[in-house]
Amino acid sequence: MIRPIPPPGRRQTGSSYSAGLMFSLASFAAIALITLFTGVLSARLYGITVIGQAALVLAPVTIVTLLSTVREQPAMVRELAKLQPRHPRVTGVALAVFAFSFLLTAVVTALGVGVCYLAFRGPLHAPELVGPAVVGLCGYLLIINTCWNIDGVFGAFRAGRELFAVRLHQAVVYGVLLVLLTRVTYSVWALVFAFLGSWLTALIHRLILLPRVISLRASIADIRAGFQTLREIVTFGLKLTPGFLAVGFTEASGTWILGATTSVSAVGAYSRAWTFATRLTELNWRITEMLLPTLVRHRHAGDTDAFDRILGDSLRYAAFGMLLPAAVGGGAAEGIMHVFGAGFESASNALRLLLLVPLLQTLTAIQGTALMAYDRPLLTALAQVVRFAVTLAAGIVLSVSLGMTGMALAMAGGAAVSFAAYLAILRFSLGFAMPALLHARQLLGFSAAYACGFLTAHTLEHELSGILGLSAALLAGSAAYVGVGVAVAGTTQTDRARLRRAVSKPSGSPLPIEVSGAT
Q1: Angstrom distance (rounded) from CA 333 to CA 462
Q2: Is residue 41 over pLDDT 90?
Q3: How many CB atoms lie within 10 A of CB 74?
Q4: DSSP secondary-structure letter at 355?
Q5: pLDDT in tens, 469-518
């Protein structure tokens, strides 16, 4: 077991949960806006057919991502969160996890290349997509997987500032490459190279920043100790793996089911709606990468009051924040999909349903983080396996009869079932009280806010045409949502105190830094 002993002669510090989360939320907001722009840009530049091809080409990357991990990254975070940044043992543990992750990913990637060859030349009848798919898989092995491992180290010490910088870098470079590559080709190759190129430059950026949290020098004894810890890390990660696989296969099922039952154009329209919606699911990663080390430290210190307070507030704030885009985006769905170009508006109804998925996934991710902090990783699998079964069965049936809308309905329904299962697990297995978001006034406030935001955006989007009309609908819908939500759901004394602190913080003042596990 790793003990949190700081290196002699050096007092190390790590960012607080609030400071790290502030940067994570800023990262989410900035990248969401950039991604929306690049999503429209790619659709306009390359068209619905190439977008559909790109969705099929990158789908194997999603599958390999699922099969090439035993959730060693979050298991690593649990160990590193007990240490201080740049502790010599951090280097040993990280090196062991990186080596294991690369070897496992290399094996699965080799198998994935063979499956791609058979699938694209067989059932998918698209042999021209074999090459781009193989390049995408190799890029994932060498570049993207390495980036994610480094992000795990940053996340263990709640280094939100560094994560914000590298993610913003990657999003901006992707948009630049989309434009530059039109001078070479308008085929699916351009999207693949823009995707991998942006990750490559961001990897270099990560390597430059990595010494802030990890020492690049370590003794043989520290490295050996890190590899000895690997067994414990992998054992814990294996308990998380069934739930992780269920989530991944659930999210990938839409593309595969529609690819088998509909046209490439339908896949392209659905994939753009799904991509638009799932960009919002990145919020659950942004929250949980800061929440997990925080809850682990409080659990390790036996501070259950702080644990419960942080968990409850995270659920409540996430619910209110994530319901806003679901309401406003759902109301203006036709206008949003029309922005992507001709043919994409056919996925408007699907988008309305898919925008509910990020809300539910964020709440379940927060709930799952609490279970991980309490060393109950196997319980996360139960809820996610149920979700996968519901989504797969309903998706096959509904996509045949309702097309894209049916698949979206299955996605939303499966996520709702998962959320309910998590609530039951937390209540009856761990004895947690129902979170504040389930209180009557909270439910009434959230429901009223959703209805007002949706109706306002929907009305203005139909009354006013063009980008200006869509912008007015989104802004007015957001204002209606926030106004009604705050008025009906109300705020707590803690909420008001936090708001006053945020407003009174001088512009440009440094974020708070904490020692060890303080909040």
Answers
A1: 11
A2: no
A3: 24
A4: T
A5: 888 999 999 999 999 988 887 766 776 676 666 556 544 443 333 323 33
The pair of three-digit structure tokens given for residue 142, joined into one six-digit string? 């060498």
Token pair listed for 117: 């060859």
**Which of 342, 46, 341, 43 has the alpha carbon at shortest distance from 188?**
46
Separation of alpha carbons 385 and 185, rounded Å = 42
C-beta of residue 458 within 8 angstroms of C-beta of residue 332: yes
Q: How far apart are CA 3 and CA 445, in angstroms?
A: 45
Q: 399 in the Ramachandran plot: left (φ > 0), alpha (ψ -120 to 50) or beta?
A: alpha
Q: Which residue has 């109301």 as its token pair?
A: 331
Distance separating alpha carbons of residues 437 and 88, to the nearest angstrom: 42
> Cα(407)–Cα(327) distance, rounded to whole angstroms?
20
Instruction: Supply the angle between the helices 17-67 and 160-180 in degrees, to the nearest 10.
Output: 50
* Under 8 Å between Cβ of 327 and 454: yes
Which is it for the CA torsion 370, 375, 380, 382, positive or negative?
negative
Inter-residue contact 287 to 365 (CB < 8 Å): yes
Query: Does 197 score more than 90 pLDDT?
Result: yes
Instruction: Specify the DSSP element, H or E, that contains 513.
Output: strand 513-514
Q: How far apart are CA 495 and CA 472, in angstroms?
A: 29
Give the residue extent of every domain in the chain: 14-438
- Single-letter amino acid code for the residue at 107: V
For residue 144, give Cα distances in angstroms to 70, 136, 383: 16, 10, 28
409 near 394, Cβ under 8 Å? yes
